[in-house]
Recover the amino acids of this structure.
């Protein structure tokens, strides 16, 4: 079946611009996670949704970052006033339920802020 | 911070077993050990998890010491496609604490 998909695969933007990154989880998966990964580092947790609500947003670095999941499926990560330090791979993962052990990852969106 | 310590890199000959160690000396009683891997330019992939018993699936085996302070992931017959960064993560599976805290992992190179 279809896995987690993320669009766009690559996004180049200029400092100060607004960007939206989309994640389509596996159908029926209620848990959704966003991580970001800088070169040579492990993924860093950003936010976790259980259904439509953010159960844990402790990883969002500041108020320029916001994520939504209005219907409990697709999620959008929104970054305002982008900075060069926001350049990274943004990864999305989903799980079939809150207690599931495995997270299924998408291929990521490579964000470059010039 | 990650609760695990792994060697930064390892090499393995194709067809041989790859044994990847992980130290998690501060693991709590309710925390599981998870292994993921990330092939270059791809998203991470789940491999296996365990609590205290050894586990085996079609991808790998997980050996957890009796005191649970360390574990070893075993790829029994490594292939070139197993070249990846392998991450060992500990996490409880309860409440709203579902996030994975990742370290730097072990970069495994499988050589022909």
């Amino acid at each position: 079946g279809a896995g987690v998909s993320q669009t766009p695969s690559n996004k180049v933007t200029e400092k100060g611009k607004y960007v939206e990154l989309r994640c389509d989880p596996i159908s029926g998966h209620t848990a959704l996670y966003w991580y970001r990964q800088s070169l040579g580092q492990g993924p860093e947790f950003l936010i976790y949704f259980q259904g439509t609500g953010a159960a844990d947003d402790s990883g969002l670095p500041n108020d320029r970052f916001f994520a939504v999941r209005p219907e409990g499926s697709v999620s959008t990560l929104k970054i305002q006033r982008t900075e060069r330090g926001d350049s990274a791979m943004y990864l999305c993962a989903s799980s079939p339920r809150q207690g599931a052990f495995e997270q299924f990852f998408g291929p990521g969106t490579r964000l470059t802020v010039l | 911070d990650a609760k695990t310590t792994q060697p930064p890199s390892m090499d393995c000959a194709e067809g041989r077993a790859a044994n990847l160690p992980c130290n998690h000396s501060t693991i709590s009683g309710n925390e599981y050990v998870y292994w993921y891997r990330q092939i270059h330019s791809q998203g991470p992939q789940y491999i296996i998890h365990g609590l205290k018993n050894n586990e085996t699936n079609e991808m790998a085996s997980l050996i957890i010491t009796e005191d649970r302070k360390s574990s070893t992931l075993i790829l029994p017959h490594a292939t070139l496609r197993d070249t990846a960064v392998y991450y060992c993560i500990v996490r409880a599976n309860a409440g709203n604490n579902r996030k994975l805290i990742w370290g730097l992992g072990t970069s495994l190179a499988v050589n022909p």
